[in-house]
Design goal:
Layout (H helix, E strand, L loop, with lengths): L7 E5 L9 E5 L10 H13 L3 E6 L12 H21 L2 E5 L3 H9 L2 E6 L5 H13 L4 E4 L7 H4 L7 H15 L26 H6 L17 H13 L5 H4 L12 H5 L5 H9 L6 H24 L6 H4 L2 H9 L11 H6 L5 H13 L4 H14 L3 H15 L6 H10 L29 H15 L1
GO molecular function, one term: deoxyribodipyrimidine photo-lyase activity
EC number: 4.1.99.3
Keywords: DNA damage, DNA repair, DNA-binding, FAD, Flavoprotein, Lyase
Amino acid sequence: MAIPSQRLRVLAEGAPNADGGYVLYLLQQANRADFNPALEFAIEEANRLGCPVVACFGLLDGKSGFPEANARHYAFLLQGLADCRERLSKRGVGFVMRKASPAEIAIDLAKDAKLLVLDRGYLAIQKRWYAEITEAVETRIVQVEGDVVVPVEAASGKHEYAARTLRPKLHKLWDDYLEPLQARTVKHKADGLTLKSEIDVSNPDKVLAGMSLDTSVAPVKRFTGGHTEAKRRLKAYLAGPFAGYGADRNKPEADAASHMSPYLHFGQISPVEIALAVREAKPGSQEDRQTYLEELIVRRELAMNHVFYTEGYDRYETALPDWAKKTLAEQAGDARPHQYSEAQLAAGETHEPYWNAAMREMRETGYMHNQLRMYWGKKILEWSPSPEEAFARTLRLNNRYFLDGRDANSFTNVAWVFGLHDRPWQRRKIFGTVRYQSENSLKKFDAKAYLKTVETLCAAEG
């Protein structure tokens, strides 16, 4: 299938470099060798220009690494890259991985490339990399969107107030983008190229052991990275737990979630690939399909809209609507019956056993059900000395322990706790008119069964 022209953005005009020996693809956000529009576009162009394709990845660690990433995140990333490298090799695409930033490796390898192809992310650090590349690279640069169903600017040209304002815009467009993506045949294999790759990612554990990282947050056994594992999980999910998703999605003990969020975060599976599979899923009702697509497309792409159109999406002062900051400030002096330090929160040492269990699941397995994430965040606001400190704590804990932390969804969901994409509610202590969530919300599911589930999951982590 043709790649929609709306997914393509020319970042640097000009003819391809006639002296180049390959088409270069910076594998930065879409860490997969299948159902990847940027890779397929690179192959198309390489076939047209009569040369091979080289994919590259820059790996940073230590103080220069991706902000807040630790051993847990890098283990999952490296597992995915190992899987990706193997599949690229089978397709005849070269792969170069070096100790460098994405911008540095792209700029260096682009000197000998006919064309540079980029995929796309929406975070500020990714925008900086793209700007650095565009400033330094002389050859033609094309960016291909593969991380959302509907490209953000195509869906809306402004920051959307809430899901209800973005939803009709996405519904109007998404059928145009929900199309299969055919794997192109590589006509000129990269076997003869002699490009230096400093890192052999075929042994991800060895690579991880040689990195300078925060190892206090350990890799998890619950999730293994890579497109191969993502597809296996998706297939098993759609054949079983998916049936009943519409009714059970807010019940953590029901195991109705697909657990695709870590794979989406690292670009190890395409949201279009998931959406197409969900549409065809049997068993599964129309309600199941519609509800899942609401979460996958509307809610996820509302988050992309937020970080794309909000400068300072990770700061209290700039991420929240004015009404929310005003009402929280008005209640900032309210007495807090329970206050905990960030260390106590991280350790799950509060008076509330279900909150502690949710924190334990997050801390030890890298995941927490969305229903509990909302409750978890609201309680941090209630138990912190100020709304500003609560925001900072919630974001730090979120980004530290979740496999899908440091994501557009993460920044948006944390801001939602403090009023983003919401409306004023009944006024109360501490929260003002920001939505409150009490322990009564735990009655919506079998909380005791959830405790047992957490025990089992954490025992499996050893």
